[in-house]
Amino acid sequence: LFGGTTTIGNTRALVAELAEPAPMCSLVETFDGLTDLPPSLFGGERPCSLRYIENDTLVLERPGSCTEYNNAVSAYGDLILGDFALSFDWETEPLPFLFSGQNAFPAAVQVFDGVTHALEMRLERVQVDTLLNGCEPSPGFHKCWDRVAGSDTCASSNRVSASLVASYRITRQGSTWRAYVKEPGDADWVLLRSATLSEGPVRFALEQLGSVGGTKTRFDNLVLTVDACECPADLSPPPDGDGVVNTNDFFQFLAYYQAQDDRADFTGEGEINTNDFFAFLASYQGGCP
Known about the structure:
By secondary structure, the protein is mostly beta strands. It is built from 3 helices and 14 strands.
């Protein structure tokens, strides 16, 4: 692949059913070789929805037999603390419309409060069969809205689009949130919206809220970086660890140390000696955030 408000109720209902998870750290998920959702994502079952892995992509689908409108299918991530950057690619098939005035959201990401489950920011691809008000820029557009401004299209940030392929990105630095879009042909990320929102714990959800049946969207190259999750002692398994520090990381460091591998240079002095061993021990005892 190229590298609403009706949904909030579904988000709250699903998250309320879930046990409180540990915070997420950095994540790179390409879905390669998988047959089911990876451990980094989860989602409750919903009527009229399919969620599966196909051709090394995550597929969110509302099959043609589905006649229930406004029923989202999602994949959720665990708790995120502090500054973060989240991005992914998506591609959807042409959208069927079964009645006038219908709108669809074939690809979306929403980030919501990890405690209250209230939505903070949502970035979505919108397709409408009939323009419903003067604020909709075209039948197809990217739309970003947030908790403060609300979901009304007149208060959202929009970009006209006919593309069924794009990449989305949401970042948070302190209380400053930014949403970006990148379509084929764009040289770089295009800033769609900036807002001042929560600095508290959040979760994210990838979503497809299609028209009544027959909408299928593929998600790929999901990348999450979390600044608060720097954990240098998390060495095993290589290359990025598993988010926890345990004896496997200790033995992995010893292997690097004995091989004089640069990854054992914990002091950054350019040489590997007992100072690196003691620096690793300090990080090891500190664990991960």
